[in-house]
Amino acid sequence: MQREKFGLLLGLLGVICFSLTLPSTSIAVEYFGTTVVGLGRTVVAAILVALVLIVRKEKLPSLRQFKSLAIVALGAVLGFPLLTSWAMESLPVSHGAVELALLPLATAGFAMFRAGEVPSIKFWISSVIGSLAVIMYALHLGFGQLQFADLALLAAVIILGLSYAEGGRLAKELGSWQVIAWAIMIGAPFFIIPVGLNLTTEMINAPFQAWISFIYLAVVSQFLAYVAWYSGMAMGGIARVSQIQYLQPFLMILFATVFLGESITFFTIVIALIVVISVILGKNAPVSKKGDALEENPVKRA
């Protein structure tokens, strides 16, 4: 129980760090562009990661582990950063925050197939309540009509959900920070050329907040936040820890209010409370492993 509680705490820390990703992206992409913000963060993070791997003399992952790392890299290193950077050029942070609230369902769904976790009915009921709450919030704000940027965000949700589930499963055998570290090292070499082609001299004169936002994306969003997040999932369970993600859209809106001047309404606070209640219910819901029922009933297994 103590291990699960600590895992939930690490998951919460990761979610708080991730909640600053869209606001930071919205600021940085205006000055650096989609490619540099979406892929350049990985190139910068790779320098830090390489130093850590060398100092710690980490062993290379096995071929089987590399296959899983490729899935993590596809979502967390390539797909999500690039798609969200493109979407944030035309959408407000609150818009993106609402759609990313569907991420816990995507993560839990992939966890069932990739990690063998079987959430209970109570877990899924709490997930549906949380999802319906954010959908109501989206409809209230008039986000019912999908744009191409909306499709990009939905694709980001699906691909990152798979990446989270795969990374959480792999973290149990490879190590939490090692998962995202090796995923970054896999993706970074392919990003150097496109990032280099999109660099301009005007970027040097970008304002201080743009540089701070980009550095945050590279060091925290792309690496340190994943260390906390994958550690949390490895300790507390992928499906259960993923419930904390329901807090993420409202933390994003809060940070957008503080750093971007976007307004927050009473309706937002009410929906946030509903989502928090669903997180608490989901956190306490039982989550079993495939095959547990057969182990408890040998007759059924025979």
UniProtKB/TrEMBL annotation:
Zinc-finger as UniProt keyword: no
Q: What is this protein called?
A: DMT family transporter
Q: Where in the cell is it found?
A: Endomembrane system
Q: How does it sit in the membrane?
A: Multi-pass membrane protein
Q: EamA domain spans which residues?
A: 6-137, 148-281
Q: Which GO terms describe its cellular component?
A: membrane
InterPro entries for this protein: AA-Vitamin_Transporters, EamA_dom, EmrE-like
Main localization of the protein? membrane
Segments crossing the lipid bilayer: 38-56, 68-87, 93-111, 123-140, 146-165, 177-196, 208-229, 250-281
SUPFAM superfamilies to which the protein is assigned, alphabetical? Multidrug resistance efflux transporter EmrE
Pfam families under this entry? EamA
* Keyword set, alphabetical order: Membrane, Transmembrane, Transmembrane helix
Family membership, please give it. Answer: Belongs to the EamA transporter family.
Where does this protein come from, organism-wise?
Lysinibacillus telephonicus
Q: Which domain of life is it from?
A: Bacteria
